[in-house]
Amino acid sequence: MLSWLGAATLLAAVVMTARWWARRVDSLGRERPFPVFSVALLVVMAASMLVPVVRHGQLEGRLSHAATALVGQPVTVNCQTAGKEFLDTGSELGYVRNGADGVPERATLIKRAPCRDLSHYLRSTKAQPSPGEVIAVHVLTHEAMHMSGITVEAEAECSAVQSDARTARLLGASPEEAGALARSYWHTVYPRMPSEYVSAECRAGGRLATGSPDAPWLP
After folding, report:
1. Secondary structure (DSSP) of 98-133
2. Where are the beta strands (DSSP E) in the chain?
3. Domain-by-domain residue ranges, the chain?
């Protein structure tokens, strides 16, 4: 909606300029003054509406690129808009829908709050991520695991904790910063997750261990 309003406002500025150009001289040969204030106001209004749309698209593109690297094939990350957040009643931070065949789609929706935290993380130094940023990076990783074909929550969660450091690196963190973020999630968030997300096999030597060098339980 915001993109349409911005485009319409910009079009109004163009139309106003075109009308002035077509009638810039009156019947007595006098030049009509250009409607500077009106056109400038419309351009500023259009920019105020279109700039957030452009930034939103850039964020989705950056997150999609990272998720694609994690999954190994093209996937899409969509960030929830303010309008959709207003109508949202779900408590999940992101989700991937399953197709009619039960196979997860290659697209995810991440809710507005974690997407905002991901945006902050991308612009940060990565040295001291906030708790919200740590969780947001993990949400992106978790949904990427679903898009890779994992449907069981505990398995997706365990695979994600072993991939969080890679996600952080894909988003610009150094290896040290990425490892610290992954360990922060593992020690402070994972133990408090609902039972369907936690497994006793998610550990060194456990059935769900993937052998990843980024596993948070490694020294």
Report:
1. B-TTSPBPSEEEE-HHHHHHHHHHHHS-SSS--HHH
2. 76-79, 94-95, 107-110
3. 56-197
pLDDT, tens digit, for every residue of 2-19? 567 766 776 776 777 777
Residue for token digits 């994992």? Answer: 150
Distance CA 191, CA 28 (A): 82
Give the Cβ contact number of residue 144 at 10 Å.
29
Mean pLDDT value across residues 188-200: 97
CA angle (148, 120, 194) in 5-degree steps = 50
Q: Is 99 exposed, middle or buried (0-12, 13-18, 19+ CB in 10 A)?
A: exposed
* Contact partners, residue 56, CB within 8 Å, separation at least 6: 79, 81
Determine contact, residues 182/214, Cβ cutoff 8 Å: yes
pTM over 0.70: yes
Assign 57 to helix, strand or coil: helix
With 0-12 CB in 10 A as exposed, 13-18 as middle and 19+ as buried, what is 138? buried
Identify whether the C-beta of residue 134 lies closer than 8 Å to the C-beta of residue 181. yes
**For 143-171, what is each residue's pLDDT tens digit?**
999 999 999 999 999 999 999 999 999 99
